[in-house]
Write a structure and sequence with these properties.
mainly alpha; 77% helix; transcription regulation
Amino acid sequence: MAKREVPLRWDRKMQQRLARGEAAALGELYDRFASLVHGLAHRVLDDERAADRITRDVFAHVWEHPDAYDPRQGPLRTWVATLTHRLAVQRLRATETAALARGGPGTTEELESKVRHASVAARADYIVQSMPVPLRAALELAYFQRRDYRQTAADLGVTEDEARRRLRLGLQLLSTAREATSRDTPGAPPGYGGAA
């Protein structure tokens, strides 16, 4: 319980500082979350310039509306990720809908499929970035470096049982990316858990 209180205390203090208009607080928040925001936006939009614009929009929104964050709903990181996802999906839909209206290729169903796919991918990225380091390290060794569980155990200096446990837990967390997105209503953030 104490571990959860420490980040939430920082989240509440950050919100209070932002509400007082402390520019330094916005700088700290940006330093902490800019790579997360940009990465999620890029994952949804697959466009560097559009991700840059979403990043600016997210931090502008946080600066202008710090009271929109409710610490009782979850961590500030989750709220920022949810906001990022919502703005990126809105932009993707607007861009793709405009392209369809101009006679571009595709259908509305293909657009929604693209949005769902981008949402699952963004949520999976968020889950990997947020999972405990031991789980992430095991997954990276197993899937990016093609190590089996025995090699993963040796590389991490843990037992084979522990390596299997970490891989299983990591995969279980990742499997929630698709499940959460399929449960969400159209247009809603994909189960990041925070209020948008």
